[in-house]
Description:
- With 216 residues, this protein is mainly alpha-helical.
- It folds into two domains: 1-50, Arc Repressor Mutant, subunit A (Orthogonal Bundle), CATH 1.10.10; 52-210, Tetracycline Repressor, domain 2 (Orthogonal Bundle).
- It has helices at 2-24, 31-38, 42-48, 52-73, 80-96, 98-102, 104-109, 112-139, 147-172, 178-191, 197-210.
- It is elongated and about 60 Å long.
- The protein starts with a helix and ends in a 6-residue tail after the last helix.
Amino acid sequence: MAKSSKENTYEKIISASIKLFNEQGERYITTNHIVAYLGISPGNLYYYFQNKEEIIKEIFKRYEEELLEFVQGAVPEIEGYAAFRYIFKILDIIWNYRFIFTDLSVLLEKNEPLNEMQRDYINNKIAPLINHYFDLFIGNGLILMNPIDLKIFKNNFWLLIRYWFDYDKRVRGELNQDSKLRGSIHVLGLLKPYLSEEDKLIFDEIYLKLSQGIDL
Length: 216
């Protein structure tokens, strides 16, 4: 029973931290805010985490594992709504940890181990998967790109996904559920110039349907 209680407290600290960081911004939340929100003593928090940086590192690990699990397990399709749903799911995962991406530069600048962890994650786990999928799409004739276009596109694809919520927040002042929808349409829009004429028409259809009632 004691072990279960400890594990529960650990998870509560993580969940509360994600919630507070997302809602108010990581830089404005201290460990005192977290313990006050949970109604626990500082000693309970420091039993599991020496400081806020350790909490952030654990949250980073969870984000990376969740995103990698999805990307590895779901082969994306460059086909109308299937492609949109794939991109939307990626942004949905990022949305759950959005404080990371609205405060990313600050987080990485002040935490070199975290910076190294993120660099390794992108270079050795995410980038090879992106390369594999787009090489596959080109080989199957689903998208039409030359090697130069492909290199530029892959960088732009990841940059837009990674920094979308930071951009949207700065432009609109706050984030909401429509931010994911806007991001998905813009990321999918990167593909449009390289699609067949038939698939371009499908993209326009998706754009018109999904843009009803929201400001893109």
